[in-house]
Amino acid sequence: MFEQAFKNIDDFLWKEAGCTTELDYTEQTSWLLFLKYLDGLEQDRADEAALDGKKYTYILDKPYRWESWAAPKGKDGKIDHNKAMVGDDLTGFVNQKLFPYLTGFKQKASGPNTIEYKIGEIFGEIKNKIQSGYPSHQQRQEDVVGRRVEKGARK
What we know:
The protein is mainly α and 155 residues long. Helix content is 55%, strand content 3%. It is built from 7 helices and 2 strands, in the order αααααααββ.
């Protein structure tokens, strides 16, 4: 299951001019998967809180959550390709907004053992090497188990 997901990521990074070594692949794969995982974790926590009649406070503000920038969904719950950023819009968002926002968590954290501090530390050390914004968009259409999403339908 995960082998196909990593192969899909590797395939799109291979085509990206900024990724030239295995270390680049590992770094870029790691931050993409981390943000995807964090989004899922936060959604699970929000759902649990709702079931308990409590309110959940997300770590990331809405514009920076995976579901907002990497895989925006329509009211039907399917990926809305019309809302998805591509090209310069996507790379501009990631480089000029997302990474600086995540890096800022280190200064806002209450201490070094918090998730916020760790997010800030991680994103302060890495650099997005995806330059075109088009392979990223193609990757967003691949879910983590490697199924291709075309026109809102899973294949």
